[in-house]
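Page 47, continued from p. 46.
Same chain as before, 444 aa.
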Amino acid sequence: MKKRHLSRFRLAAPALLLSFGLLFAGVVVFGQSRGVPEPEPPPSATTTAQQSASGNDAAAAAIAGGYVDTELPEFIRETADTVLAFFDVRKTGNSWQRLVLAAAIIVAFYLMRRLLLPAVFFLLKKLAGRTTWTFDDRVVDAAEPPSALFLMLSGIYVAVLTLDYAPPVSKAIGSTATLLFSVTFFWLLLRLLNAGLDYMHTKAAQRGAGIALYMPWIRKTLVGVFAVASVLTIAQNVFGLEIQAFIAGLGIGGLALALAAQDTVANVFGAAVVAVDQPFKIGESVQLAGHSGTVEDIGIRSMKLRRSDKALVIIPNKTVASESIVNLSKFTNRRVEQVLGFTYDSTPDQMAAIVDDIRALIKAEPDALPNSEMVYFRDFSASSLDLWIVYVTREPDFAKHMALRQRLNLAFMRAAAARGLSFAFPTQTIDLAPSAMKALGKNQ
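Result:
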């Protein structure tokens, strides 16, 4: 245990030293030790920053020059004011009391990050584990890293506000803090979004829903949209950029891009249609655009079909969305229809008997759907007496369907042989005139 704590301390020590180094470097380079006599009321971090800003022409010029007026979160200012008042730190400027207090605040928040926050999330995980709903477990796991970062940023900036800086540096600190806290907030939202999408994917896969196959690219699309919206929000609120003009420019450029990439856009919309309609899944056999095969992959631009000859066919999604699709894996049963032709020397009694025999053979077959058989002497064809046979298999499996057909075909041959019937094949009888007969005799 001692070795473990020592290793953790060795890992944490560089982070603490880096924080202290940056803090004190900022004090040495940018700090102002004004040495003002002790005033009656204790100055707060807020009033110190306001007095410095109001009495400094450089700060006013910076604001007029276009710097963004960003501020630290109010709770951080209030915490810094409370700490200064609690320890009765009255001197302005970076006195030794303020430096020691800033270092102590960083250490305190670091200890909260290492000890208090894990204990809180341990209790939250225990509470979430008592429920049958797994989504709360994912939410707790997703919120822990951003919460740790938020706590450390809060400690660093509370420590920073206990010190005194020149107005341009104070404004830079405020802008940096707003940026970092915004990034932390959007990081938390992104992790919660991923947790929700993972939960939906898991539930869809457990229920066998077709949407589960499309969740990976749905997730990529949503995360991409969220990332763009986050960057634009930070650019407008933190850096003061006018994103309306940027979006208006995108409208003109987007029109040209849409005209140039209309096939790509059509494929993306086709993928959305396939995702919503779900006409097939990966692993199913389909007939599409003149090709038959097994679906291997469904992407944003195209789908991949493996034919029976093992050739790979890539079909654009816009074709998939516009073509008729035959899903060969969605058979509920398989219908068999065939015609048996007997020779013309068959008698009516023989034909009636073979009809009854074949009907009985189909009824006796356990893999044939009951009451689906139809057997009739249907046609007098050119060279045969045709027997029409229809039945339905009990299961849609192709191999079982073929095995059933083979058994019944062999049974049909045995029944025909038992009745003295012969299967017909295409033949022609030609009657010759007497003159033709004589001509043939002379030639012989």
